[in-house]
Amino acid sequence: MASLLLAVIYLIFISLGLPDSLLGSGWPVMQGAFGVPSSYAGYVSMTISFMTIISALFSPKIIKRFHTKWIVIFSILLTVFGLLGFSVSRHYYMLFLFAIPYGLGAGAIDASVNHYVANNFSGSVMNFLHCFYGVGAVISPSIMALALKYARWNEGYRWTAFVQIGILLVCILSLPLWKKNESESDEKEIKNSAGIRETLTVPGVVLTLIAFFAYCSGEATCFLWTPSYFAGTRAGLSKELVASFGSLIFGGLMLGRLISGFISNKLGDRLLIRIGIIVELIGILLVLMPTSGYLIAAVGFVVIGTGMGPVYPAIQHMAPTNFGKRYSAAAIGLQMASAYVGSTFMPMVFGHLQQLMGIWIMPFYLLLFAALNIGMLETAYRKLR
User: Fold this and answer.
1) Ramachandran angles phi, psi of 36, nearest 5°
2) ∠89-90-92 over CA atoms, to 5°?
3) Could you tell me which of 206, 208, 204 has the C-alpha nearest to residue 216?
């Protein structure tokens, strides 16, 4: 039964990844449809992320009160409502209304499932789990590209919502599996878990929050602006091809986490993160190469994603080991809130920077956050030691 439950959890993370790359893939066309500047994508992304921060900060209390399975079902319902709302939006301001359930659903499901897996499964399972997030994030730009080719951008959101509804039905059918995998000791640990204020005093927690902020600042910037980077630096590309570039970073994330799933138990979380950031830096250098074609830059973004791949799941998986199970729920909730602060503001900041200086600065922007990420983590390791 545990293996069946794990399969359902993998499917849940596909559903978590599905909405994340739609805005970046569809924005070059959506921008024209709404008649707004390119930087306005940052405001919508910021609203989604802000709502995710709220749900992540409340996640320790929610996890104490409700079982993970109910959090998952309600969260997917929220994202379905948000996706369908985007699909019927005819004015720019309407995106903000539907960004609220869009973001709230993502934060609650992310925190609760990550906490469940970090406390009950190995680092290998955690990496495979986030690999399946990449599967969802790769699928949705392809859905958007098909919608742009055969219909409109609105259909990209509607078709993705239909996929989410299918996953929701599977989750409802799987409810008995969660009951069979519960134990009294797990419930006691959840009831006795620490709150956010107490967890912030634990050595190393704040440093990992800054590291998570840096990681998701770079990741979310790639999510939102990679198609626009190619549209702004490579002439003559079709809108369908530009939209498909939204899957590059997600394909890299999926590949990085797939590889990490096989080797993480041997290498350990810390070494995996170090190797990942080195690979990310190599990808940034490839994007920086002065070439007129798009192929090397496209490979560079895949390499960036591959390097980023193990960082997020490894930091989350380390939480019970680094800080203890009593603090793990609050630590993971705080880490996610900090991560989404980066996701909220840094793509928007980049949107204004690229309007002032040009979108060619994107690789340098990513380089800054990669350095901050590894610097904070290495400092946290020394404090923990």
Assistant:
1) -125, 160
2) 80
3) 208
Domains of the chain by range and CATH?
A: 2-384 (1.20.1250.20)
Determine which of 46-50, 207-211, 364-368, 369-373 has the lowest per-residue pLDDT on average: 46-50
- Tokens representing 336 are 């996610």
Question: 186-218 pLDDT, tens per residue?
Answer: 555 555 566 677 788 778 888 989 998 999 899
Do residues 174 and 5 make contact, with C-beta atoms less than 8 angstroms apart?
yes
Nearest-angstrom CA–CA distance, 40 and 264: 39
Q: Which tokens sit at 269?
A: 């979380």
- What would the pLDDT profile of 211-254 be if each residue is shown by its tens digit? 989 998 998 898 888 888 888 888 777 777 887 787 788 788 88
Q: Of 372, 301, 378, 384, give the one whose Cα is nearest residue 338.
A: 372
**Token pair of 110 as six digits:** 């992310």
Question: Using CA of residue 81, residue 86, residue 90, residue 94, what is the dihedral sign?
Answer: positive
Residue 328 near residue 336 (C-beta atoms within 8 A): no
Residue 188 burial by CB count (10 A; 0-12/13-18/19+): exposed, middle or buried? exposed
Looking up tokens 């949705």, which residue turns up?
140
- Angle (nearest 5°) at CA 83 between 145 and 67: 125
Label each residue of 45-92 as H, E or C: HHHHHHHHHHHHHHHHHHHHHCCHHHHHHHHHHHHHHHHHHHHCCCCH
Ramachandran class of 19: left when φ > 0, alpha when ψ lies in -120 to 50, beta otherwise: alpha
Q: What are phi and psi of 278, to 5 degrees?
A: -60, -45
**Radius of gyration, alpha carbons of the chain:** 20
Q: Which two tokens stand for residue 32?
A: 């024209």
Q: Classify residue 305 by burial, with Cβ atoms within 10 Å: 0-12, 13-18, 19+.
A: buried
Q: Of how many residues is the chain composed?
A: 385
Helices (H), the chain: 2-17, 22-34, 41-65, 68-87, 92-120, 123-150, 153-173, 175-180, 184-191, 196-199, 205-233, 239-244, 246-267, 269-288, 295-308, 311-323, 325-357, 362-384
